[in-house]
Amino acid sequence: MTQLLVIKSSVTGAASVTNGLIDRMVDRLRHDVPGLVVTSRDLDASPVPHLSSATLGGIGRGEMGEGSAPTRLLSDTMIAELQAADMLVIGAPMYNFGIPSTLKSWFDHVLRAGVTFQYGADGPKGLVRQKPVIVVEARGGLYSEGPASVMDAQEPHLRGMLGFMGLADVEFVRVERLAFGPDVAGPAIEAAARRLAAIGLTPALAA
Ligand SMILES: Cc1cc2nc3c(=O)[nH]c(=O)nc-3n(C[C@H](O)[C@H](O)[C@H](O)COP(=O)(O)O)c2cc1C
Prior knowledge:
- The protein is built from six helices and seven strands.
- By secondary structure, it is of the alpha/beta class.
- It has a single domain (2-206), classed as 3-Layer(aba) Sandwich (Rossmann fold).
- The strands form two sheets. A five-stranded parallel beta sheet has the order 2-1-3-6-7, sandwiched between helices. Strands 4-5 form a two-stranded antiparallel ribbon.
- Strand 4 (117-120) and strand 5 form a beta hairpin.
- Helix 1 (17-32) packs parallel to helix 5.
- The protein is globular.
- The structure holds flavin mononucleotide.
- Flavin mononucleotide (FMN) binds next to helix 1.
């Protein structure tokens, strides 16, 4: 059995570029990989709540208060999904130069000391089982080069959080300049679709 975990975080519904690209990729993988099991979390349809003083104990920081039990269950469930996956696909639109707050909440629940990372004499160490990660990033502007690149609080943040859990095999598929008009946006989306198709049947999924 081969397991794919998909995390979507767009709030733009049917117009979502990241969701559209991910759906095309997953359709193809379902066709190409016999027995593929896809676990999907759409953080727009089912947002992960923000942490609060009442729930923080659920992720192992501080006391397990009365309100912590549902948080612990959600965190445990999402970490189990992450550990079980042979490949992880994340849809990450750029909202105000960073990731959507719902996606940050997902990370807040899966980055757990002693569970997905730990500190030792050599510093931090990731505890999540190795797997390829594909991040589909959509942006209205251009950040991979040029003057706005210093404003990119999306890709470095994602790379840092994934790496902290031990996930260093990350491919970022960027769709940029979506706000520059249809003549620019259309080809950018199709180029990303071709890139995702070329990633194709990875050894992780073929195993
Ligand atoms: C609330 C919001 C904030 C946005 N902030 C930025 C931004 O800071 N920089 C940028 O280049 N594009 C920004 N955009 C444009 C989105 O990155 C772009 O529309 C992208 O397609 C969103 O991905 P999606 O279509 O999957 O939702 C923003 C869009 C929204 C809805």
